[in-house]
Amino acid sequence: MLRQGIKRDNEEHILPKYNEFFNMYAGVHFSKNPEKYVKYKPHEIKACLNKLFDDSA
Description:
The chain is mainly α. The protein is built from two helices and no strands.
């Protein structure tokens, strides 16, 4: 139950903020090395968070 709550909270709080960040900065050269800051696509972040709190672990 706790694991599912944490997973849900991550999806509700972290993913929307990361999506916003990604959409704003993915195509902008705001640094010499933007790949250091925008490494992952939103679906990759979601997959990592799901693995982190996987029920089979």
